[in-house]
Specification:
Blueprint (H helix, E strand, L loop, with lengths): L3 H27 L4 H8 L5 H13 L4 H19 L3 E7 L9 E2 H11 L3 E6 L6 H12 L3 E6 L2 H4 L19 E5 L15 E4 L3 E5 L5 H6 L2 E7 L3 H14 L3 E4 L2
Parallel strand pairs: 1-2, 3-4, 4-5
Antiparallel strand pairs: 1-8, 3-6, 5-9, 6-7, 7-8
Helix pairs in contact: 1-3, 1-4, 5-6
Length: 254
């Protein structure tokens, strides 16, 4: 019997929990602890569904807990080695120069969205509907990716944003979850949500100066980096999720 479901569930849990907390889960399996004990021990709402699915897959495939623990332990070791292989490349919007190869922001951003299989987190200050990005986001939602996008609001920008609310850029993409930095959680009156990034499955991170607009990703002169592997994608995702959990970032209706 194929154990693909169990292997996929193990990968999903590791991507969310990271190596250290996945090792805690390994210990629970090794001691024969069940799903409810695991949920109480981990106490991470963002990982609850993945943990339940992992235990469900173990039951479906009739895998002894000791064997599941051994698999998870080996998977974490391999995942850590792969994660530690880091590739960093520069990404640019705007004019190109002869003889200097660069990755264009528009193409890279769509590629990052396309790489996501479980989770996509993004942040932007301004946003306008950009058809290639919208299409990539719709495809991601369609294949079951959990998509969260943090945007600034016109109220939060205190009049510095022109045009419609940035959230409206994603109205045509059903299933995207929108968030904003709550005004009452800002320490300074003039503080802005100015981060621009996208992280796929905690493994690939684009970080740059470009907003999620056509001008930002194609027309303006903007710079950024694409990080594949290493701890940066994982840490960026963990920070965003923790800000959500603490209520610093709150859900926003488009």
């Amino acid at each position: 019997m194929s154990r693909a479901g169990f292997e996929e569930a193990a990968e999903a849990v590791t991507a969310i929990l990271g190596t250290s907390r996945t090792k805690d889960l390994v210990g629970l399996f090794a001691r024969g602890r069940g799903v409810e004990h695991a949920l109480m021990t981990v106490q991470d709402p963002t990982a609850s569904d993945a943990i339940r699915e992992l235990y469900s897959a173990v039951e479906r495939h009739g895998i002894p807990y000791a064997e599941a623990a051994a698999y998870l332990r080996g998977f974490v070791t391999g995942w850590t080695r792969q994660r530690d292989e880091v590739d960093v490349r520069t990404v640019w919007s705007g004019p190109a120069t002869p003889g200097v190869p660069v990755r264009p922001t528009a193409r890279v951003l769509v590629e990052v969205v396309g790489k996501a299989q479980r989770e996509l987190l993004a942040m932007t200050y301004s946003a306008r509907a950009y058809p290639p990005l919208s299409a990539a986001l719709r495809a991601a939602v369609g294949r079951g990716v959990e998509v969260h996008i943090v945007v600034e609001t016109k109220a939060g920008a205190s009049g510095l944003l022109d045009g419609p609310e940035p959230a409206k850029a994603f109205q045509g993409v059903s299933g995207v979850r929108l968030w904003h930095w709550a005004a009452e959680r800002r320490d300074h009156q003039r503080a802005r949500q100015h981060a621009k990034l996208a992280v796929a499955d905690r493994q690939v991170l684009w970080l740059g100066s470009a907003n999620l607009t056509e001008s930002g990703v194609r027309k303006n002169l903007e710079a950024g980096v694409l990080v594949t592997g290493g701890t940066a994608p994982q840490r960026a995702a963990e920070h965003i999720r923790e800000l959500q959990r603490r209520g610093v970032l709150r859900p926003l209706s488009a």
